[in-house]
Design a protein that fits this description.
single chain, 21% strand, Nucleotidyltransferase, domain 5, five-stranded mixed β-sheet, globular, alpha/beta, 10 helices, seven-stranded mixed β-sheet
Length: 355
Amino acid sequence: MKNLRILSIETTCDDTGISFLECNPKRIKILFNFLLSQDKLHQKYGGIVPHLAGQQHKKNLRKGLEKIMNKLKIKSLNKVFDYFVFANCPGLMPCLIAGKEFVQLLSILTKKSIIPVNHIQAHIYSPFISAEPNSTSYFRIRQIKFPIICITVSGGHTRLILIEDYFKEKILGRSLDDSAGEALDKASRMLKLDSLGGSALEKAAKSGNPKKFNFPRPMTKTVNYDFSFSGLKTALLYQIKKMKSWEKEKNNLAASFQKAVIDTLIEKTTRAVIEYKAESVFLTGGVSKNKALQEELRNVLKKFSKTKLFFAPQGLRSDNAVMIGFLGYLKLWKKEESVSKNWDEIEVRAKDMCE
């Protein structure tokens, strides 16, 4: 397959991503990558306001495209891009619509096709990307052995997935209530750490004793692979309420809570590795940046000499447009049928297409 130039965007929540990639079966070259957070916009509301996020995406996408054209001295879009890729699910509807309308306009102007992709699936396949040493612009596409067990952990999703081959996936389990990332974020707010959510909890946990408080490991004894974290969050709330000076125990509470979440994730992941004889394990999603989770999963997998652990490159673990573009390219490369669609055929869905 020849080099393909792909413009990809990510607007599923409050981060605006736009990337310009040049892809072939061995390598990805990032010609431009733009990621803009909306944290300050939503901070005063105590959470993301979907219609404001959608409006801001429209402004940010125009700004990103202007930067691409100025940096690369592009005067006309007609002969620059081969495909447009965007995440059409799952996400906040005003944000998804902002992305859809942007690529629709570009498709009309250039007569190039659109490839809609699933945001969660983009996270799942991101470990196939490997950073080149001493480069922020070039990435290799890894050859990884199947079957793969993927644990995807973010603020919105917790899923355990079996990948038997390219685009042959089976969801083994998911969170029945709060995601692991959401539980970590809420625990951080309960402990009045700061606005950084799970990353603030991780920082506090480094100075705490993970064995000081015995929080439950929810659903680890069930035969299925589903998760539940709302009860764990409630256990932390009750523990705080019954302590007179819990502020002095913040770090210990953070460490013990984080350990309970990690133990729960790892127990079911390792059980799936054994049952499905996994050759590889992927840890993906924003929470994959958590060093304690990485280290504990790595140590557990040492028991399985043939099972290798893979992550996405450091800068591609949270939401980003590079993983969106890579998944679009992977679909073109690995699937026999065409996945490109005309602009008027595209749908967006707040929930995952498989739900």
